[in-house]
Amino acid sequence: MTNDKIEYELKGLYEHLHLDEDVYDYCSKIEKSLKERFEAIDQVAEYNQLKAIHAMQKNRVSERHFAGTTGYGYDDDGRDTLEKVYADIFHTEDALVRPHITCGTHALTVALSGNLRPGDELLSPVGKPYDTLEGVIGIRPEVGSLAEYGVTYRQVELLEDGSFDYPAIEKAINEKTKLVTIQRSKGYLPRPTFSVQQIGELISFVKKIKPDVICMVDNCYGEFVETIEPSDVGADMCVGSLIKNPGGGLAPSGGYIVGRKDCVERAAYRLTAPGLGKELGANLGVNRALYQGLFLAPQVTASALKSAIFAANIYESLGFKVVPNSTESRHDIIQAVVPGTAEGVIAFCKGIQAAAPVDSYVTPEPWAMPGYDCDVIMAAGAFISGSSIELSADGPIKPPYAVYFQGGLTWHHGKFGIMMSLQKMKEAGLVHLPL
Ligand SMILES: *Cc1c(COP(=O)(O)O)cnc(C)c1O
């Protein structure tokens, strides 16, 4: 078939999937304008793909590493080798990569509580951390928080323009400061995501003032977006979730901590038990998915990035606020679009849901979710429950009426989801496509 013929049939198929021709045409035009941007993303993906393959070859990954273990999990060679592969990719001395780590918050909790002792102080020089960390640290009182164990906390706000307040950071570092936590991704806050280079500059600054302080980076949503990771620029620990970027959509559960050997060991002593550490923990047969997911992760992350940039360009061109904007460089996979009304947020999420491979027939509705001070609408049709490397969107029903979305295991699914969001916005009379 010629390209024209495929294009014709493609349009027919999209129509069959309830996407109007004018939406398709508008989005196609935007897609064509992004060719160079996408090529640059593919180049980063190629680099990271080779980095992953190199690490797997070096550690002689083989079929036997995919076998499951049970019980204590002594001598789980697949588990130990996977950790060596992670350590090589992140260029660290050691790694803890486990399906038993429940989520990103748990990985961060293990890293923090393993490395902090009563009387120590934790410093966040980048403003408020991710919501769930508030309970972990004790910013919001919670049973078993670090605060309950006598770990104090200090926070330095970012400057107005989102940059680091170096004089205030210097003042905040004191004899008790043991660990500095740096969140790479903005998460759901209105501040820029930091580049790896910026994080490196901050770490150098902190280490100049206090060389023995442990610098930890919350790397969630940032893995494989650039060719280097925070561990390449001085971070003592990088921490993240396997149901985000590094799991490649295949990891059924888990988290990782990579970094200095002593830091990782203290974390492992917390995850299992003092004296046991990394030696225990049966992988229960999920090794293959963790390896294969890591192998796919550079490509999957590239797909998510393309989807984010595509959405930014479409919605910005239609007059909506988008963060990051259509041309900014990217350091994580999260995209915010501001429809500006509750109806817009709902329509956007309905479109994402309608494009899902799983649960496409359900209609998401806003509801009062625990932990939120307003109704929230969530769209997700994922193979792995809650996986936010898969195409997903959520929007709190309150001003500024923004939707945060991320993911797309494949670029073509991301593209379809975003086109469907526009379709639903159009059907609700909230956008008018220029002719
Ligand atoms: C996702 C995320 C976390 C951890 O969230 P979980 O839902 O517990 O996996 C922490 N920090 C950031 C920046 C995140 O994006």
Summary?
The protein is built from 12 helices and 12 strands. It has 435 residues and is α/β, with parallel strands linked by helices. It has 2 domains: 178 residues, Methioning gamme-lyase, C-terminal domain (Aspartate Aminotransferase, domain 1, Alpha-Beta Complex), CATH 3.90.1150.60; 219 residues, Aspartate Aminotransferase, domain 2, CATH 3.40.640.10.
List the SSEs and their pairings.
Blueprint: H1 3-16, H2 21-33, H3 35-58, H4 77-89, E1 94-98, H5 104-115, E2 121-124, H6 131-137, E3 152-155, H7 166-172, E4 177-183, H8 196-209, E5 214-218, E6 237-241, E7 255-259, H9 261-271, H10 287-317, E8 321-323, E9 335-338, H11 342-354, E10 376-380, E11 392-396, E12 403-406, H12 411-427
Parallel strand pairs: 2-3, 2-4, 4-5, 5-6
Antiparallel strand pairs: 1-7, 6-7, 8-9, 9-12, 10-11, 11-12
Bound molecules: pyridoxal-5'-phosphate (PLP).
